[in-house]
Design a protein that fits this description.
Blueprint (H helix, E strand, L loop, with lengths): L5 H18 L39 E8 L2 E5 L2 H9 L1 H4 L8 H5 L7 E8 L2 E5 L2 H9 L1 H15 L20
Antiparallel strand pairs: 1-2, 3-4
Keywords: Signal
InterPro entries: YHS_dom
Organism: Aliishimia ponticola
Length: about 180
């Protein structure tokens, strides 16, 4: 029988725990109890995006009967097909930065992402917190993403934001 000194075993467990934490930070969930306030994250990819500087189309509400768990949160979908599409590749469809505001991450913090203030860039879904923030985000989307990516490495293990999305009333998924 091979014996491993306790401090080495404990270190290995700590490293394993850190590695798991780094790849699965806590998802932002608002008062609805759903990620992305219960909007169908797959459906965003079927919506026609507005040009930079204009408001995006309204996202599609999910239904309580079509849900999936991912990254410690419940996601709602408008159809069983969208739920199954999500489950086949959740990293592709889940909002970046665990649903936190992309510009907030670029500025070094975790604040809620408002699912009505969205943009898809390079086949990834990004959320922002307020219309005013969207203006700053859109001034340099590629630069903000690059900065956010660099910041996310140290921010991801932090607890998810527990703040409410400002000036936003979250609709619960329909039944």
């Amino acid at each position: 029988m091979t014996r491993i000194p306790l401090f080495i075993a404990a270190t290995a467990v700590s490293v394993l725990t850190l590695a798991q934490t780094a790849f699965a930070g806590p998802q932002y969930v608002d008062e609805t109890g759903y990620a992305a306030s219960g909007f169908d994250v797959v459906a965003y990819f079927d919506l026609e995006q507005s040009p930079v500087g204009q408001s995006q189309p309204a996202p599609i509400a999910g239904k309580a009967e079509y849900t999936a768990e991912y990254n410690g949160a419940k996601f709602a979908f408008s159809s069983a097909e969208n739920r199954d599409t999500f489950l086949a590749d959740p990293d592709r469809f889940a909002p970046q930065y665990d649903g936190h505001c992309a510009y907030g991450v670029a500025k070094g913090g975790k604040v809620p992402g408002n699912p009505t203030l969205w943009r898809i860039v390079d086949d990834k879904l990004y959320l922002n917190v307020t219309k005013n923030v969207v203006t700053f985000w859109e001034e340099d989307i590629p630069g903000n993403i690059q900065t956010a990516e660099g910041n996310w490495v140290s921010l991801e293990p932090d607890a998810a934001s527990d703040r409410t999305i400002p000036n936003y009333s979250s609709p619960a998924p329909s039944k």
